[in-house]
Amino acid sequence: MLIGDVARRSGVSARMLRHYDSLGLVRPTGRSDAGYREYSSEDIRRIFHIESLRSLGLSLRDVRRAFDDPDFTPSELVDDLIRRTRERIAAETELLTRLRRIGAAEPAGWEDVLQIVALLQALGSKSAGKRQRAALSSVEEVPVPVEALVEAALSETDPNVAGALRWALAQSGEDGLALLAEGLGSPAAEVRERAVRSIAEIPNGGATALLRDALTNSDVAVRGHAALALGARGVADAVPTLVDMVVEGTNDVDAADALSALASRPASADQIAARLVDSLAHGAVEPSARRRLTQALAGIPGTTASRALTDLSHDEDRAVALTAAYILGIREA
Hints:
333 residues, mainly alpha, Multidrug-efflux Transporter Regulator, Chain: A, Domain 2, two-stranded antiparallel sheet, elongated
């Protein structure tokens, strides 16, 4: 079969067939009566084999080695192809993400596109200073898509940059809440904590609802951050978690301050005092926890807290008794 016929039937151009010939991959083994080279059925079979291997991503150099090297190991080559394909997919996925983010920012012109690209690159910089400036600029200049801000906030390790990113997200309103909610379910504890801290700085009802949900999160750190944020917002649902934090000694001072803020209304004060007293009466509570609970009563106004402190001033634990007596002296002064 002459080269033109082979090209038509195989779908491989005559130019590429000549290139295969020059590389020694497929050389026509026959001759026509007129002296033209002819491809045998074996030659055509080899062409299809070459095309099959090329469809897997092999270079012509790899194909030739596969055919001619007696020590060639297909499994090693396939493993290498898998690695290279994954790298290529990762690169293409990164490019797709970047393009989507640029599109989401709805740039008005090429100047906006260039500014967005520069900010996205700065957010991924190794320099903490550049990342921080990019976070601040994302609000003051061309807006960076909230998806990029959330991704940066959930991966940021520098506290100053993290603070700037949380501030930038707070300016975006509810746009990033859905993505931050996904962060609360991350298998990485540090990501979960960054997510709840970012949500805590967004001042709207959607964020408050997410923080309420976070009170039942399996991660104690997430529950704690959510409770402190809700306490600052005056949400009574946080009280049980805040009391648990006092008992456990986890950010207990902040938790006690949050309970004090929530106890500004008389009805709330009595309920919070009653919960603290119930915890004090629990037989399994450690002596150190009882002292922290007694100290927490100092910030709770009302008769329930005062009666509890009077009783505690006669407690068998001298440290608890002295603490209660000291608090009563301040309250009565």
